[in-house]
Specification:
By secondary structure, the chain is an alpha+beta fold. The protein contains 1 helix and 7 strands; from the N terminus they run αβββββββ. The strands form 2 sheets. A 4-stranded antiparallel β-sheet has the order 3-2-5-6, with no helix packed on it. The relative contact order is 0.27.
Length: about 120
């Protein structure tokens, strides 16, 4: 009987723990574009991309391509459902920059990119 109570207690603790797990939130990426002097660049085209990722279990191919333009403070804000490592491409007038960003689940990740 004592063993049964211990098992029942353990099951109850596990179920309560599972029920109280925090719901995951989307990943947010904030890309700030600045010029070589460090001033924000409004109106820059920011592209986040991950080409041709194939799920090895399902064979489903996923291409990520999101585009935003920076606001007056030089920021472009993106939201994604899953973690990922994405290429960052920035273009404005004759200036450009390339970089990458690693998104983390339920986190806001910031990246500053300098166009040259």
């Amino acid at each position: 009987m004592k063993s049964f109570i211990q098992v029942l207690t353990l099951v109850t603790v596990v179920l309560l723990s599972a029920a109280s797990c925090k719901k995951t939130e989307p990943c947010e990426a904030i890309i700030t574009v600045v010029d070589p002097q460090g001033a924000p660049v409004p109106g820059a085209r920011v592209v986040l991309r991950q080409d041709s990722v194939v799920n090895p279990q399902t064979g489903v191919r996923a291409d990520i391509l999101e585009e935003e333009f920076t606001s007056s403070n030089g920021e472009a804000i993106f939201e994604f459902k899953w973690e990922a490592v994405l290429n960052v491409e920035v273009d404005v007038d004759t200036l450009s920059a390339r970089d990458y960003i690693r998104l983390e689940q339920s986190e806001t990740v910031r990246k500053t990119v300098t166009v040259r």
